[in-house]
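Quick one: structure tokens for this chain, please?
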Amino acid sequence: MKRLLIAAGGGGDAITAAMVHAALHGPHTPALVLTYAWERLVVDPVPGPRGIADFTALDRPAPHLALVTPRTAPRAPAGSLLPRLAGGLRPALGLLDPYEGVVGLTRQIEAAARWCGTDRIDLVDVGGDIVARGDEPTLRSPLGDALALAACAATGLSTTVYVAGPGLDNEVPRAVLAPRLGDPAFALAPEDTDDVTPVFDWHPSEAGAMLVAAARGVRGVCGTRDAPAPVVLDDSSHLVHRLACEDALRLSPLARALALCPSLEAAEKVSHAVCGFSEIARERQRAALLPAPSAPRPPAEPEAVLDRYLAFERARRAEGLAYVTTRRITEELALTPVEADALHRSLTTGSPARRVAPLWQLATA
């Protein structure tokens, strides 16, 4: 028998699911994590999630079940980090395809449960927007979580919802989530992060990176990319809350409204009605503003890149930040992969204290 976990929102939730599984059952217990291929435009320039038709070389061990392996590849122009993630995580990865809405997701989850030989589901979310009401002013991406919650409820299988690191995704504030989540069930420990920490050398998930850092004892103010405010890592940042599926469903008007939704297009309309927006529509708007691809530029000299970083570091320290994510450094300095790798090697070698995996500590002088 394999444990079945659902990564509620895709992206970093699959990595968080692996950590929660390690904490609950040990890292060597066989498991399958189902996750969306729904990634930032910097990874996938095509708005919205990717479905089964967007990939080659998926493993199809059963009807309605598609497994992602390191041999899997996205069809151009789409992009995806899932094949690389499949090679970096211990649990197997399966694809959640939301294009047939809750109806299709329910079939996929039921097929995965049969393949795993289990009648239980662990639904994992990092940050907590799975219990969003829909009217929170900072809410940005509730649809994937709500679809997964509605689908798990529709299966009738025993489902437990785990919310790790409330507020770390910088959407619904932790203070708002606290009365909805109740007391924490357990805390992630440093050993729960051992298998996933190397993934953040290349994966852009900021909420997942901060969750790992918090579990490893990092405390302080961390700056992320495209967020209205920095995140404070404290003794509550690595806590995990446990809810019954029916309780999470009661807290989520969007998930309740999505019941029996037959398509992703219909789900978008429901999101507009409940939340006043659809994140897919917002992605389409942002994608339309992206500059046309240009010819690759030659990498800058390492010394020049380091000088840019040091100026960035001084400015962020002046703002009161103690740590930053890899993604913030890479995107704010507009680094190519070659430049990013060279900078990371330079910082790690010349000033090892700056690397507090998977975050970067800003030097005080």
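The chain has a mean pLDDT of 95.
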